[in-house]
Backbone:
């Protein structure tokens, strides 16, 4: 799909959308950096509101300094304890033992309770916060991320006009040691509710279960390829998460306790749900949005992008490029399209391996 034409912000109505961020007071400098990139590349043109979330009250300094970075309205929201705290039915002794075992096996963030809470909140609760009730679309923004391209069209209007449910930039493999029972739990859920998942010709089942490119991952994750959309960047339709299908799925997963007994991330949980319950044509790779988080990036070959290395998943370490799962995604989308008729290879993302950014 070609990049949409520029949007005139003076004549085009805004979508019902917000930029959202879960951020600590101590991450003030990191979120200011991200806001500057976001405002320069996109939001200074469109002035979508910012909604900040925290499990403790924001300081006055945080609120004053973040509001000073944008002309858009900012709101500062406290997460309800019942959405954030460890449920009282979690076995604390078992959880602490699991943390140690995962750490010994090299699972990142295994012993960080706040990380487990964050993953669970983004998996099942962020969209339930009353502050988001009035919105349909969101763009998740993390501290210390970078946006490299001039985005001159309204991405939220693009989502609405093209019936898109979810947008991503980076698509990589996860550590199977963090999610060994996510796929077995998912298959058990789907077996109990066979009408929930779309057919493999419509959804992204083969992307979720590929065992060719990384068979070690698929085996260790008990049937799941571990391919996932890196959710620190996501542009999405909140109604997907609010749907009864997703609510039932999350509740089923949550009752296993494995957001704490394992280290289930929101990225694989979101990705598996999207891969089963959404049509793959409703999921969009924002190939034209340059983005970097940590060591991974999406950098189009475009004169609208500056400050990143084009066509590289990571500019730092060559072996990390082996973590890229986009080729599996392109294969899934194209094969699904071929089953329905003639295929536009560029739309599939295969034209020039999809790196042109045009």
Residues:
């Amino acid at each position: 799909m070609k990049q949409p034409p520029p949007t005139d912000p003076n004549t085009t109505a805004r979508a019902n959308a917000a930029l959202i961020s879960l951020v600590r007071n101590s991450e003030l400098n990191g979120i200011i950096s991200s806001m500057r990139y976001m405002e320069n590349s996109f939001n200074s043109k469109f002035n979508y509101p910012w909604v900040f979330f925290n499990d403790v009250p924001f300081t006055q300094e945080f609120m004053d300094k973040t509001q000073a970075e944008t002309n858009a309205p900012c709101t500062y929201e406290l997460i309800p304890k019942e959405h954030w705290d460890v449920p009282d039915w979690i076995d604390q002794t078992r959880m602490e033992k699991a943390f140690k075992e995962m750490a010994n096996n090299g699972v990142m963030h295994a012993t960080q309770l706040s990380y487990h809470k964050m993953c669970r909140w983004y998996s099942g609760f962020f969209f339930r916060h009353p502050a988001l009730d009035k919105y349909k679309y969101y763009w998740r923004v993390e501290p210390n991320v970078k946006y490299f391209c001039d985005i001159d069209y309204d991405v939220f209007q693009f989502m609405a006009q093209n019936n898109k449910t979810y947008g991503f930039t980076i698509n990589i493999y996860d550590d199977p040691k963090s999610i060994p029972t996510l796929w077995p739990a998912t298959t058990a859920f789907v077996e109990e509710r066979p009408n929930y998942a779309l057919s493999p010709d419509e959804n992204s089942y083969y992307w979720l279960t590929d065992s060719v490119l990384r068979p070690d991952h698929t085996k260790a994750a008990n049937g799941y390829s571990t391919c996932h959309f890196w959710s620190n960047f996501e542009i999405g339709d909140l109604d997907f998460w609010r749907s009864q299908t997703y609510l039932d799925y999350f509740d089923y997963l949550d009752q296993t306790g494995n957001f704490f007994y394992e280290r289930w991330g929101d990225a694989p949980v979101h990705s598996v749900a999207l891969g089963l319950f959404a049509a793959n044509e409703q999921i969009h790779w924002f190939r034209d949005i340059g983005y970097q988080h940590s060591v991974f990036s999406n950098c189009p070959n475009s004169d609208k992008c500056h400050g990143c290395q084009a066509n590289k998943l990571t500019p730092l370490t060559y072996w990390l490029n082996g973590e890229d799962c986009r080729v599996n995604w392109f294969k899934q989308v194209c094969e699904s399209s071929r089953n329905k008729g003639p295929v536009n290879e560029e739309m599939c993302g295969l034209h020039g391996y999809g790196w042109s950014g045009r």
